[in-house]
Design a protein that fits this description.
Length: 758
Amino acid sequence: MRRAGAVSTFLLALFLLAGTALAQDAGTPDTVRAGKVTTNAGLKVGLPVTAYTDTPVGGYSIGLTWNSPDITYDSVSYIGTRLPPGPRITPNHDPLNRRILVGFADFSAENPLAAGDGLLYTIWYTVSGSAPDQFVVFDSSFVPPAGTYEFSPPFGNGYQPKFKAGEIKIGNPQPPAIIQLSQPSFAFNGQVGQGNPPSQIQNITNVGGQVLNWTSTKLSSWLVLSPSNGTAPTAMVVSVNTASLTAGTYHDTVSISAPNASNSPRKFPVTLTLTIPPPTIQVVPDSLRFQGLENGTNPANQAFAINNIGQGVLNWTATENAGWFSLSSYNGTAPSNVSVSIDNTGLTAGVYVDSILISDPTAINSPRRVKVVFELFSAFPVIEFSPDSIFVVGSDTQNPANRILYIENNGGGVMNWTLTKKNAWLGLSSNSGTAVQGTPEPVTLTFDRNLVDFGKHYDTITITSSNAVNSPRRVAVTFWKMEVPQNLFVNKTSIAFFDVECGSYPGIPAQTFTVTQAVSVPALNWSLSFTQPWLTATPVSAGGQATVSVRARVAGLSPGIYLDTIVVRSDVSLDPPRKIAITFTVQPTPGIAELYLSNDSLLYLYKYTQLGSALQYVAIYNIFGGCVDWTASADVPWLTPIPTSGTTLDSIAVRSDPVGLGLGRHTGNLIINSSTATNTPFSMPVVVWIYTFGDANGNGIVNVTDVTYLINYIFGGGPSPVPLFITGDVNCDRDTNVSDVVYLVNWIYLGGPEPCLY
């Protein structure tokens, strides 16, 4: 026999200084019963708590809550108890939330609560002299930080006994309110840095008698409840704020309470799962256009860039099926530049179109395409024109805006051209001319509203040439004279962006403009266009009013001023296309540099049975923007930066390799250096914490100090187990409570089963 008496005395000294169980209750269900008593205002009253058990119980934690501020806790009495003799654990009383946790533990493992039925203890209360008639309802409760409602056998996992609610009836009250919730639980899923997932609704209703004025409680700052209190019925908006959260699964429980509800509190769990965004492929530009003459020399090579604008590592593969161009590289790791070479051998005049497919199975937007167009012109003149057709709108009081038809020679030599048309309402600024390759000839088209009735009218412009190989060509023209015309407007004529070469962190903000129409119905369909790959706009088309978000990205641009024009057009607008001038000023790297990382620190958590390498990512940037060379290193062998050097703005993958490390907390540093940054070298702390279940204080050893730690946490409001709450779980029921104290004592002193390994 072990020294049970000494163990019991020692653990008692520790006590004096100082979710839900998964096990099944075999046999007849054990039951805790809170009594029902009647009293009047101004008196003292005792609430008996009895229990039926069909097997011995090595420990319990019974949390009770009551729903009225009109009674005040006095004491717990053990007169008449069927508990075995011995010292009693001081109750954990939470007066603010009207809760009490009463515990018992058989530290000797020789004197448990025997099977049977009878009184455990009596809780005494004082009823306020001004208390109104009411039912004070008692229910089982979790009492923070770890006071679960639970019975624990001498060995094995704890379990929840059945519970029968009790009440103190003061005077002659009306029936209480009853809380009803529409949803038993909520689950949210999102990605780090990608915004918050959609909100959800919890409907709180009263299916009882009295008015239900409810309040809510929660523990986590990432969980948002609106409103957090009210009078039923209420539609509570449940939402989450993922800002500043890293990847992982987060849990909380919302408690809905009302002092006059017979089933208060009602609880529902909330789970938030955040994952790391995968790589995102960016190709700049996303199209290439080549031109050449039949049987002539090949055009100059052009290149496109492959960037990763997400997280992780982008290992790309390029595929194409064309026989008339080739790539400088068909695979690599972003960022990369790929050169495209044209081979016109054996090709006849025409337009050749193909795509380069850029793919990575781990990328969120794989595959991406780069369009390749090769215009191979005939050595003879070839008629080309733009646009392909013309559609204009006018009214009884306003002619359509003039349009421009461009006549082009897509072949060789000098092309003579002539234009003809049929109707007088269509005017041409020129009927003939000449064109050479690369110099389009503009012809202005005018429209006379006075020569047509309401409705649509059609004509065709015929382009002929005496020396072009494809003469004649035709352009369809439509003139719609409308009774109720539309007008298209934009609220800006110019937008200016400013950034520094290589970029700044977290990037320059988007700017917006608004597209509107003169008459709201019917909606005016419009689209926009631009040419430069550094410019993006969303949306590029819509029906009716819309706000367009415009962004400029500095990737790959040298210092200078870059120009583009966003053209917004609609076929059914009286107005010519609206134009917004875009200016993007890219400034050179400033003369001063200070490097920073997007994170202050990194934490890696590992179960000691599941060690392996892991990656986290940090952005490195010059706070003043621009291109600054940097190097990265680590002061411990288990930490590796990838890459070890680069130029801002950049991303560093920080890899931890904990194999060979012992239990507990291990610290290291990612060290950043630069020959030009004034604040280098500097370091970012990195912690690898290897934990096992039972090591509640995180010191790498499972022993009696962890018992002390858990007792202080459960009954004394001490700190939570580290590095995770779940490390206090030694019996594999996925909770940390009094059952784990009993389990750990039995393992350390009495040869019980070892802590679980999951």
